[in-house]
Design goal:
Radius of gyration of chain B: 28 Å
Number of strands of chain A: 11
Oligomer: heterodimer
Largest sheet of chain B: 2 strands, antiparallel
Strand content of chain A: 15-25%
Largest sheet of chain A: 6 strands, antiparallel
Number of strands of chain B: 4
Shape of chain B: extended
Number of helices of chain B: 11
Radius of gyration of chain A: 25 Å
Structural class of chain A: alpha+beta
Strand order of the largest sheet of chain B: 1-3
Helix content of chain A: 25-40%
Order of helices and strands of chain B: HHHEHEHEEHHHHHH
């Protein structure tokens, strides 16, 4: 190789080595703190603990199609879903007692598989007995591994239904990311929001997208916010006005039996 | 040298001749690889063609940490998995092939090694989408502000203290460590020339590092099978071992905990809130292998340790950053931020994330 070619190659390699550092040094990010502490539904404060919020580029105007789909979204209530799946009243009561959406929510303790206990749940009992056969009569494993021995529609069926609704509402709108509200129902944070070139401010849209069932209605909170480069911006989802939209939908309800009083 | 050359050449020739004379199967030379064409195509593309779940010995195998046994892939595949292709190999070299699984490489071998073989590199990485699991495990606090109108009448059983429900959340898989793990200071993303850094000051710990500072990660199927035994509740197309295990270049899994802040104590009062309050990035992540930066961003520490005035530790971030900047401005020896960090991290330049509000 001639000396000139060798020098050019060396220079190219050197440039390739420093280029990533150069690019990284230039890229700025911003953060968005989404606060839901004061969010209200029907005038009353609500807890949005562990609900997922989605982030989109653009504001309300740029995401008009998404908002239209949110308006048209239909979800079945949790109780309606499980009633439709012929779940026992005891199972629905078990879910309802701690506002769970599936058996993944909380551990099934021994009283729910005890036939002599009036609060036992038939679905858990059946799964437990299946486990005893499969796991060499090991009661501990049969109780702990209840979920794999239950029918799918009672385990993650509701989650899959919700995901179907979510996919329909999202449509072709691409989310940047999503994040879950903390257990204390205070906030979530979107980090590392990129800014291109000379951008100093970018508008984003935040929404739970999937209607959240509260009482006999469901709610979608959607707000837009300008995020500044290199800073953390706070978005209070409880604010009303031109930057925020609250969509209230009726939830399809089903008649179910009452749960036992203790 | 010239007189030795023929001797050297003769030795090399002798070795090559011996090599050619002694016919051996390549199967006897290597640790079992899942990544050969023969082992991952055709019927062997299905893990179940070799691996049984559960294996017969699950009731008696020793579990790491001394926990109870549970149905698992607890031993090597049975002979029928190998003999179909390797019939010739098992009769050669006195059964050297048998050493792939058995403790003694002989045709009379009985005992098998511990499965999996810890001394061998791992051939699979684990897939675990935290964001999906968080969605599904999401536990809701009782929302009794709203009557459930479609129950007529509606009433709920209120659990007493003894039967308080235990919610599924991060701690189902990430328990408080029972012993101090191997520790390392995590490498910073913008490394500096160590010659330009001030010498690390001796580290002082308010409380000596203890096991309770740390949470562990699952290293067996125990917690996973609670929901996914026999591949239950996995998405379509993922209902086999490949749902969670992805073939990769062999690597040795280092059981090392790396942190920017080795002083952080998870069990300290005030640190025992919801994991996702601080571990923010993980909730947005579908593949931990792609996570580049700290799971806990400084912004979450600021919730409690930036500007609260009621105690020194409650504004420690601001205090230490200001002290450090002041020292730099006055050309004094650099103050090292060691309330949260060990001096290995604390002596480094303040990252941009710590300077923004």
């Amino acid at each position: 190789m001639s000396k000139l070619r060798f020098r050019l190659l060396f220079a190219a390699l050197g440039l390739a080595a420093v280029m990533p550092a150069f690019v990284t040094a230039q890229q700025t990010v911003g953060g968005l703190d989404v606060n839901v502490k004061n969010v209200k539904a029907d005038g009353k404060p609500v807890k949005l603990s562990r609900k997922r919020f989605f982030l989109f580029k653009g504001g309300l105007k740029e995401n008009e199609e998404l908002l239209k789909r949110i308006d048209a979204a239909e979800i079945a209530s949790r109780n309606c879903y499980y009633t439709g799946q012929k779940a026992s009243p005891a199972y629905i009561c078990w879910l309802q007692a701690e506002n769970c959406e599936s058996p993944f929510c909380r551990i099934v303790d021994a009283r729910y598989v005890d036939e002599t206990n009036p609060t036992h749940v038939p679905e858990f009992l059946t799964a437990y007995k299946t486990g005893l056969k499969l796991y060499n009569n090991r009661k501990d494993i049969s109780l702990e591994w209840i979920i794999p021995n239950m029918t799918n529609n009672l385990v993650d069926g509701y989650y899959r239904e919700q995901q179907k609704v979510l996919r329909g509402v999202l449509g072709t709108t691409k989310q940047i990311t999503s994040s879950m509200i903390d257990t204390s129902s205070t906030k979530t944070i979107f980090l590392d929001l990129p800014f291109n070139g000379t951008e100093t401010k970018v508008k984003y849209l935040v929404s739970n997208v999937l209607p959240i069932e509260i009482g006999d209605k469901s709610y979608v909170w959607t707000c837009e916010k300008d995020v500044e480069a290199g800073k953390k911006t706070i978005l209070d989802m409880s604010k009303t006005g031109k930057n925020c939209v609250t969509t209230v939908l009726t939830v399809r309800n089903c008649e179910t039996l009452a749960c036992e009083v203790k | 040298m010239r007189t030795d050359l023929p001797l050297i050449l003769a030795c090399i020739a002798a070795v090559l001749l011996a090599n050619g004379y002694l016919t051996r199967s390549s199967a006897q030379l290597r640790v079992f690889s899942h990544n050969t064409k023969a082992h991952k195509t055709g019927k062997y593309s299905d893990c179940a063609s070799c691996h049984t779940l559960p294996t017969k010995n699950w009731t008696t195998r020793k579990v790491d940490g001394g926990g109870p046994t549970f149905p698992d892939v607890a031993t090597f595949p049975y002979h029928t998995s190998c003999f179909g292709c390797h019939t010739q190999d098992i009769y050669k070299q006195g059964g050297a092939f048998c050493g792939t699984c058995h403790t003694v490489a002989t045709m009379r071998a009985r005992a098998v090694g511990r499965f999996p073989v810890r001394a061998h590199p791992t051939q699979f990485t684990t897939l675990f989408p935290h964001n999906v699991h968080q969605d599904i495990i999401a536990s809701n606090k009782p929302n009794r502000d709203y009557a459930v109108a479609h129950f007529i009448p509606a009433s709920f059983s209120v659990p007493d203290e003894k039967t308080k429900p235990t919610y599924y959340n991060c701690v189902i898989c990430h328990e408080v460590a029972s012993k101090i793990p191997k520790l390392e200071t995590r490498k910073v993303t913008t490394p500096e020339d160590s010659k330009l850094l001030p010498a690390a000051v001796p580290d002082v710990f308010e409380k000596p590092i203890a096991a309770e500072f740390f949470k562990n990660s699952p290293n067996s199927h125990a917690s996973c099978f609670t929901c996914h035994y026999q591949f239950k509740n996995l998405p379509g197309g993922k209902q086999s071992c490949i749902g969670c295990h992805e073939l990769s270049k062999p690597f040795y899994e280092k059981q090392v905990t790396r942190r920017y802040s080795l002083k952080f104590n998870h069990e300290r009062e005030g640190h025992k809130s919801d994991c996702a309050t601080c571990h923010v990035r993980i909730t947005q992540n579908g593949d931990v292998r792609t996570m580049k930066d700290a799971d806990v961003p400084i912004v979450t520490c600021r919730f409690c340790h930036a500007k609260q005035e009621d105690a020194a530790y409650r504004k420690i971030i601001t205090t230490e950053v200001e002290t450090r900047l002041a020292a730099e401005k006055e050309n004094k020896p650099a103050f090292q931020c060691t309330y949260c960090h060990t001096s290995e991290i604390g002596r480094r330049k303040i990252p941009a994330s710590h300077l923004s509000n």
